[in-house]
Recover the amino acids of this structure.
């Protein structure tokens, strides 16, 4: 029976790599896009796109419940939506803090809550969240304060989800990339050694492994994907 993977942030660089990888692994992919937007790329395979405003809890629940009614299960959830933001304590006012909290934490929480409930009903599943290295290292995070704070909540969320899911065959991983090799990052850091960065494809490979049967014994929630940077 074909497994279903639900992917948020599917139109981004990491999302595209994840869509392609999981299609190649034989999954049915349910990919979210922002309302009125498309994926921005074409792929062959069993893929379905759904529009969802991930900042709206009721809208997210409605979309996920529709997906469940149509396909019965969500076996894997890759919750990849997130927004980067710079600024230290001087620049980080309440508005920026709320923006980062909404886009980096609430978008993940609003998706993971109904998905976790469904995985409990179906007897298990795998969830992947995306953390950030600045959240783990204060010397890096101090210059990206709102971003790092909002992402830091995802590490605690993964711990709580794993405590709740321990006896329910539900495992939540949080991946932590270093700099991802994307056109935008290359443009912003033209003098960097790009080969030290991690590619979206390498991250997608890692996500495919930790959500597969080959990794069924793995319970460590944090997976650092730093490359040489």
């Amino acid at each position: 029976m074909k497994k279903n993977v639900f992917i948020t942030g599917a139109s981004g660089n990491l999302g595209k790599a994840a869509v392609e990888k999981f299609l190649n692994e034989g999954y049915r992919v349910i990919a979210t896009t922002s309302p009125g937007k498309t994926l921005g790329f074409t792929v062959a395979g069993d893929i379905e796109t759904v529009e969802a405003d991930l900042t709206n809890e009721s809208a997210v629940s409605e979309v996920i419940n529709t997906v469940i009614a149509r396909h019965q299960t969500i076996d894997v959830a890759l919750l990849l939506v997130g927004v980067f933001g710079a600024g230290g304590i001087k620049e980080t006012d309440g508005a920026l803090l709320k923006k980062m909290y909404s886009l980096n934490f609430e978008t993940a929480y609003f998706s993971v809550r109904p998905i976790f409930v469904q995985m409990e009903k179906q007897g298990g599943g795998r969830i992947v969240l995306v953390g950030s290295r600045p959240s783990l290292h204060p010397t890096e995070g101090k210059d990206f304060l709102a971003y790092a704070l909002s992402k830091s909540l995802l590490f605690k969320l993964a711990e709580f989800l794993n405590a709740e899911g321990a006896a329910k065959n539900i495992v939540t991983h949080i991946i932590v990339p270093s700099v991802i090799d994307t056109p935008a990052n290359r443009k912003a850091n033209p003098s960097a050694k790009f080969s030290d960065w991690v590619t979206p494809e390498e991250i997608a490979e890692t996500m495919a492994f930790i959500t597969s049967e080959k990794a069924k014994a793995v319970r460590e929630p944090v997976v650092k994907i730093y490359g040489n940077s």
Q: What stands out?
A: The mean pLDDT is 94. The radius of gyration is 17 Å. The longest strand covers residues 170-177.
